[in-house]
Design goal:
The complex is a heterodimer. By secondary structure, chain A is mostly helical. Helices cover 59% and strands 5% of the residues of chain A. Chain A contains three helices and two strands; from the N terminus they run H-H-E-E-H. In chain A, strands 1-2 form a two-stranded antiparallel sheet. Chain B folds into two domains: 385 residues, Sodium/glucose cotransporter (Up-down Bundle), CATH 1.20.1730.10; 89 residues, no CATH class. Chain B is built from 21 helices and no strands. Chain B is globular and about 65 Å long. The C terminus of chain B is likely disordered. Classes of the chains: A mainly alpha, B mainly alpha.
Chain lengths: 76, 494
């Protein structure tokens, strides 16, 4: 058997992988450092606002991913 | 401060409701079978699964620890919300594959999947055994939290030992009777209750502290008086970027056994994706409780135990019914996290250790898993919880650090066909030793999480040893990766 590392096999798959990675990048250093200010936005600390931007981002990306999977044979 | 018995009755009322829901979850089904008792006949719908996973991941930490972190460290507490959202991404990707393994190959535990993929009952049993250390420590911590709540709600009338007995007895009765179905339905109830309680308490506390409904007034005052709470490394100075980043990475890569069972309880792979998609929305439950912690900085300075800030604030400033609601919500959070861990440890001991060791039939293993629940509670969880050991947090940290070190086993299931039994074993053992040393002897060097140091040694060693040792049989790897890659193996790779 020829061994391999699993990779996305379509443009949509690659796009989803990049979006997942981008979301993870948004929550860690160095990005989190840009929001490390004692300032408020909408009455909340910048880091709190950024946290919930990531939460919403995860939700939206998975919604998009589900929609994309519906159009492929990969679902279930 | 309230001295009414209303909070106690409300908290006990919650236990009674959870008990009834848990008992009714059985619905006349036979439970001496791991397919039914362990993974609810793989029948859970998206909403139940959503609340099951959400409530399971929101432990007493949300009602005690998170306000305590806000009170003592500040915005560093939000790392929890971020890693919980990333766990949803992990569930979205891995959950459907785990479900497919379980459905096709009959796995009901994480250890069984590892044993099958690497054709090594020893590796599966070893992973199950060491995972159980972290799981039991977690269950004990939640039990102690539950007993503490009962003690506070009763004004000290119910001592901690009696609280431990009451909580474990309630869980034992419905878990023994209805298994994973009880966890599903009670977690659904607990999940809704927690969401209501957190927002009711958070908004009430905010209104009382600022006269407003929004949180802006709390943070404006904090920015003016204590700006160090609004940035990393926080007021304690111990949550720098390195610890924040590595804590998130280590936490999102911990594949705890109960989560595995929850994925396998789903009705279909699509069900898991749907519930994983909506999971992040549940984590708004953390925000109002964190705000209570921030209010405590100004209202209750100098608390001896930071994790009691929400309870202390409630006892001093809120009406009895709201204190009771907080007690019920905190107890719901603790119980909803405790029961999946007890359930998964029973299954792991029966299926991954006793069955291969004593060559038990599937029917005998199913009966054993169910019956092991009570001895595990009586002989391990209750005595340890009653003794309230000071080093339990340390055991938990080591246990969770180890959970991350099992990562190579999952890399070999989801990403890399060449992963070998020896490679996984080398990775796990080396990673565990490094994590243990960097937790107990030299805690978190350079401000980096001990589990991350473990992974830095673990993963390269796993790859090197895997490349140098014989791979797992082709037919085994092929049947796993035919499910991992839904479009079947690419041509030329079979």
């Amino acid at each position: 058997m020829k061994h391999f590392v699993v990779r996305p096999r379509s443009r949509g798959g690659w796009l989803l992988t990049v979006l997942f990675m981008a979301l993870i990048g948004m929550g860690i250093w160095p990005v989190i450092g840009w929001f490390n200010q004692p300032k408020l936005w909408l009455g909340l600390p910048w880091i709190a606002v950024w946290t919930y931007v990531i939460v919403i981002g995860c939700w939206v990306v998975m919604l998009i991913a589900n929609r994309w999977l519906k159009g492929t044979s990969d679902d279930d | 401060m309230t001295t009414s018995l209303v909070p106690l009755w409300m908290t006990l009322g919650y236990i009674a409701v959870a008990l009834v829901i848990g008992l009714r979850a059985r619905g006349g089904r036979l439970m001496d079978d791991l397919e039914e008792w362990g993974v609810a006949g793989r029948s859970m719908g998206a909403v139940t699964l959503y609340l099951l996973i959400a409530a399971g991941s929101i432990s007493a930490y949300t009602f005690m620890g998170a306000p305590g972190w806000a009170y003592s460290k500040g915005v560093a507490v939000f790392y929890v919300v971020i890693y919980l959202s990333y766990l949803a991404l992990v569930a979205w990707y891995c959950g459907p594959r785990v479900w497919a393994f379980g459905q096709r190959f009959g796995h009901v535990t994480q250890g069984a999947a590892i044993a099958d993929r690497y054709q090594s009952p020893l590796l599966g049993g070893l992973a199950a055994l060491v995972m159980s250390i972290g799981s039991l420590a977690y269950a004990v911590l939640q039990t102690i939290g539950s007993a503490y709540i009962l003690s506070v709600m009763s004004g000290g009338r119910i001592p901690v030992w009696a609280g431990v007995v009451v909580i474990l007895a309630a869980i034992a009765i419905y878990l023994y009777t209805s298994g994973q179905r009880a966890i599903g339905l009670t977690n659904a109830f607990q999940g809704v209750l927690m969401l209501v309680v957190a927002w009711a308490v958070g908004l009430w506390a905010t209104h009382q502290a600022t006269g407003e409904i929004g949180f802006a007034g709390v943070f404006e005052r904090l920015a003016a008086e204590h700006p160090e709470f609004l940035t990393l490394p926080g007021a304690g100075g111990d949550m720098g970027f390195a610890f924040w980043t590595t804590s998130i990475i280590v936490s999102m890569l911990s594949f705890m056994p109960p989560v595995w069972s929850q994925w396998m309880s789903a009705r279909s792979a699509r069900t898991i994706r749907r519930s994983a998609t909506w999971l992040p929305t549940y984590y708004i439950v953390v925000l109002p409780m964190v705000v209570v912690g921030f209010i405590g900085i100004m209202a209750l300075p100098g608390l001896e135990r930071a994790d009691t800030v929400a309870l202390q604030y409630a006892l001093q400033n809120m009406p009895a019914w709201l204190v009771g609601l907080l007690g019920a919500g905190t107890l719901a959070a603790a119980m909803s996290s405790c029961e999946p861990f007890l359930h998964s440890v029973s299954m792991a001991y029966a299926r991954d250790i006793a069955q291969p060791l004593f060559k038990l039939s599937d029917a005998a293993t199913g009966r054993l898993a169910r019956r092991l629940l009570v001895p595990i509670m009586i002989l391990i969880v209750a005595p340890v919880a009653i003794s309230e050991p000071s080093n339990l947090i340390m055991i938990l940290l080591v246990g969770l650090g180890f959970a991350t070190q099992v990562l190579p086993a999952f890399v070999g299931m989801f990403l890399w066909t060449r992963a070998s039994k020896s490679g996984v074993l080398a990775g796990i053992v080396s990673g565990f030793c490094v994590t243990l040393a960097f937790t107990l002897i030299w805690p978190n060097p350079l401000g980096i999480h001990a589990g991350f140091w473990g992974l830095l040694v673990n993963l390269p060693l796993f790859v090197i040893v895997s490349c140098l040792t014989p791979p797992v049989r082709d037919d085994v790897v092929e049947r796993f990766f035919e499910l991992t890659i839904p479009g079947k193996l690419p041509s030329g790779r079979r």
